[in-house]
Amino acid sequence: MIHLKEKNAFITGGTKGIGFGIAQSLLQEGVSVVITGRTKESLQKATSELTPLAKSHSAKILGIVADVRDYESMASAAKNAMENLGPIDLVIANAGLGHFAPVHQLSVEQWHETINTNLNGVFYTLKVFAQSLMDHQGYFISISSLAGTNFFAGGSAYNASKFGVTGFTQAAMLDLRDYGVKMTTIMPGSVATYFNDHVPNDDDYWKIQKEDLGQIVVQLISMHPRSLPSKIELRPTMPGGTRK
Questions:
Q1: How far is CA 89 from CA 11, 103, 135, 215, 230, in A?
Q2: What is the pTM of this model?
Q3: Checking CA distances to 66, which of 10, 42, 222, 240 falls within 20 to 30 Å?
């Protein structure tokens, strides 16, 4: 039996969207959670919304300002998290963004921001927690995308970053599983989030919801340690809101 109330989780990009939804699901199970964001304001808003849920399940919620593009920032955030909560059992590399344009119109700055956030950020997040995960046989989950296996026009930067996340996580899984570390790449399709300046609304009823990702994470960490779903593709049941 996996005792989730004894676990501590660290989620990058946890102030809204998928990261926020995963934090909600974990707190409901009594898991103490650290979320990161790039501004104090966004973290204060998110943690104030999550605090009642944390208290009702005897868990803790902590917000830490951190930039996944900066290794030293992530190292400081990891140290802060472990000093406040203790060993981190579950790390979720969720922070991401997207710039979409034909390659001849994509700027160098857009390319670097996409790669630095979506790919380097996942590497930095694992790097700063690798020893703790190895010491405590923890779990690392990266949030990739179906764009990490399906390329499309205008997606050169985003595809490159998400193909990289998928490949990186799967290779790192082979590196660390001998130490008892479990690793999974979750690859969702259309999700009702604030990604790419979208505002979730009623027309998103057909999309994957943030709590769906949270449910998957809870199921993963609740599984018997002998089994490892190393890569999960997740699609809306009704693409584009089609009904029968």
A1: 11, 40, 10, 18, 17
A2: 0.94
A3: 222
